[in-house]
Protein 1
Amino acid sequence: MPHYLLSVCYPAGATAPSPERLDRIMADVGALNSRMHSAGVWVFGGGLHDPSSSTVVRDDAGTVVLTDGPFVETKEQLGGITIVDAADLDAALSWAGEMAGAIGVPIEVRPFQDGSG
């Protein structure tokens, strides 16, 4: 089955949810992850630290250059990912719909290339 990346997209500069809301989000995501495990589609997933914790690694004519912070300024930030092994795009979109409901933010769905060339 093809793999799909479900990206959790937060508006840049978004205010963190209240502790009560965060507890509900975590419970809902935990329940969704359990359903994905039971369905045999869950491959990997996790949340990410704030974009300011990132390091960009570039090759500059053979010299590795490290830069603190995110690579680009954006309107949205990647907050976490889940990789699913879904039968098709419709199945991946269905899981993403549940995830959007659990977290309350947009979920971008992208298929992995199959590597067959």
Protein 2
Amino acid sequence: MIQHICDRVAVMYAGKLAEIGPTQTLFDAPKHPYTEALLSAVPRPDPRLRRKGDRIRLPGEVADVTNLPTGCAFHPRCRYATDLCRAESPPLRSLGKGQSAACHYADQLELAGTGVP
């Protein structure tokens, strides 16, 4: 629904902005791993468009906002996390096309979008 009624989308994790950008850009090419995981759960009503086994199931528990881990709040659940993620909180930075993400590797990762127009 959001994809069809909003011009811009903001994605938050544990009370912090993870990604923000134009809706279609964010849905087509997310730049934060949490956004990728959320988009993998978007239902596809047409059975021919469903991708079997593509849903990302995040390990662990949602971060406790009163006791966030050091570094990136999402790192305990992120499949791309490195030592840098565990040590330093990534700043929200512009990636072009009006899109910004708080991920150390936002400009390097090839994350899956919804693939739905």
Protein 3
Amino acid sequence: MNPFAKLIRDKKAATAIEYGLIVALIVIAMIAGLQVFAGSTIGMWNSVQQNVAANG
């Protein structure tokens, strides 16, 4: 039997693909969340820098 046909019929391969898709979705959500969080963090550090420069 063709090795690719075995791979298609193998339930373990399907499960591995499903877990891979779940991990990919989690990573995409994390990247989106970090981008939102980065904007506020950069603003905070810019404010700190301005205060230190003005008072230092």
